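Reopening this one. Same input as before:
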Amino acid sequence: MIPRLCAGVRLRASCNHLVIASQSEKEATTLQLCRWLAPYAWRRRFELAIVGVTMLLRIGLDLLKPWPMVFLVDYVLRGQSASPILVRLADQLPGSHTPLHLLGWF
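Same output, byte for byte:
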């Protein structure tokens, strides 16, 4: 079964036996491809949900990437007073809480 989007595709063999596809009239847009693939993806709802949660988790972790450097520069190297939450988190680390030892954690 050939999907509607690929109905205008003609296949031909080249000299080195590779198959090249050329589309006659127009290229399929991203929205058309998504509409065509949506029923196949929707059949696998659980897996699709896992992919969505994984993507959101990755975005959240990427947003947290600069925070260790902010802590290092502001509170360890500059010696500014840290918020109580950061003090409690630093207290959970083993070892003394001098700037030299906190620098070792980063």
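So the earlier flakiness isn't reproducible anymore. For the record, The two ends are 57 Å apart (CA to CA).
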